[in-house]
Write a structure and sequence with these properties.
Layout: H1 3-28, H2 31-42, H3 46-49, H4 51-67, H5 70-73, H6 76-93, H7 100-127, H8 132-162, H9 169-186, H10 204-210, H11 214-240, H12 249-253, H13 255-276, H14 279-300, H15 302-316, H16 319-329, H17 336-365, H18 369-392, H19 396-407
Length: 413
């Protein structure tokens, strides 16, 4: 294979991966706009309505831990195509539904598909990255495109609702895009994944063993705290800001869109920032800024939250992709699928339980603001963890070793 062809092929793989993440975000990050509609249509409580978010997240968590090894066993391409196929089928089945329980069942299937795809795609990012630092920059770019999808999805739903068209058509649009991406991906030659030298059996048992690894556990815990903080914004912020009656009504209306724009823009800037500043310092500073946004909103209510909650998107932008990348980069490339599945498990579990607990607190005490008090506690714990990571650098030696081994793959481990 010629060098020119390899370069073109890798560029195509990158763009396909970017577009796939964009498509998935169109559905997962639009729930904040859909939830008020299903509350009205089906007469649901906050806890019941939050199933539209926590159901697919629980399925993603299960799928990540149960099927993460597929990317290492079947290969990245086949794992991605399986995930895309199930996702497309789930989206098209939305056109047959008319009740809340049926939609939740489809969201569970959708979540399984996303878990399978994401473990394959996250492992693929390691294959197309030359070292751990490029891996982190690529991950920020990928999540930047995910952020673009998070803008497009709610915008589509908002347009559909203003034109008196059902939000279900969002899933039909995503399903159509998914089929197109499947056709293109099936024709692309993916790079050969690195194989293990110890002939360890690649299965669920190996993934479970990796849960005891301190690097997998540590990064997963920090990511879980971050995700529990972030999802508070895009799931419950529209409901929280319904109480806003100040002079910045337009800002309250577009707060979620502004949040997603700042989050996406920050991720695209991530590669530039991480070339100039040490990553753990950036994480510590940004997590402190997130905590200040949340504590200000908790104390000031909607009058301050209308400014601070959208602004937090800028500081959140680089945390998830950077921590995700560093966690995966602590392991050999032939283990990237399994460790990506572990991290995805904790990501999705936090994304499911965080909004659910917030909904329960809101129902118990009579207002969604009590859920945001809980989210402020998550933000505080995240800040403490990332400040510790900056000061003590517990993973630095492991990351340096993996970085050098990828620059010199012939080195003996």
């Amino acid at each position: 294979m010629s060098t020119a062809y390899e370069t073109h092929n890798l560029r195509l793989i990158r763009w396909l991966t970017f577009l796939m993440f964009t498509m998935f975000a169109m559905t997962t990050d639009a729930v904040g706009v859909i939830i008020p509609e299903i509350i009205k249509d089906f007469g649901l409580s906050l806890t019941q309505a939050s199933a539209f978010h926590y159901a697919p997240m629980i399925a993603i968590a299960f799928s990540g831990i149960a099927f993460g090894f597929l990317a290492d066993k079947l290969g990245r391409k086949y794992t991605i195509l399986i995930g895309l196929g199930i996702f497309a089928l789930s989206c098209f089945l939305f056109s047959l539904g008319h009740n809340f329980e049926f939609f939740v069942a489809l969201l569970l299937l959708l979540g399984c598909a996303i878990g399978i795809f994401k473990t394959g795609a996250l492992a693929l990012i390691g294959d197309i990255s030359t070292d751990t630092r490029e891996h982190t920059r690529t991950m920020n770019t990928v999540e930047g495109f995910f952020g673009v999808g998070a803008i497009i999805g709610p915008a589509i739903v908002a347009y559909l609702l203003t034109t008196q068209v059902s939000w279900i058509y969002l899933y039909l649009v995503a399903g159509g895009i998914c089929v197109l991406l499947m056709l293109i991906a099936s024709c692309v030659q993916y790079p050969r994944a690195q194989q293990s030298n110890d002939h360890e059996k690649v299965d669920l048992r190996r993934t479970i063993k990796m849960l005891r690894n301190p690097y997998a556990g540590g990064f997963s815990a920090m990511i879980a705290l971050y995700v529990a903080t972030e999802v508070a914004i895009y799931v419950w912020m529209p409901t929280f800001l319904k109480d806003y009656d100040g002079n910045w009504q337009w800002l309250a209306t577009y707060a979620l869109t502004i949040f997603f724009v700042l989050r996406a823009g920050g991720r695209f800037l991530g590669a530039w920032v991480l070339l100039r500043f040490e990553w753990s310092l950036v994480m510590a500073v940004f997590s402190a800024a997130i905590f200040l946004c949340f504590i200000g909103s908790a104390l000031g209510g909607p009058a301050l939250a209308v400014f601070l909650f959208p602004l937090s998107g800028l500081f959140m932008s680089m945390i998830y992709p950077t921590l995700n990348s560093k966690g995966i980069s602590c392991f050999d490339k032939h283990e990237h699928g399994s460790v990506a599945g572990i991290i995805l498990f904790f990501t999705a579990l936090a994304a499911a339980l965080g909004p659910l607990l917030m909904g329960l607190a809101g129902d118990l005490f009579g207002h969604v603001k009590y859920g945001f008090y809980m989210a402020t506690a998550f933000a505080a714990l995240l800040c403490i963890a990332l400040c510790y990571n900056w000061l003590r650098k517990p993973a630095e030696a492991r990351l340096n070793r993996e970085h050098q081994s990828q620059l010199c793959p012939e080195m003996i481990r």
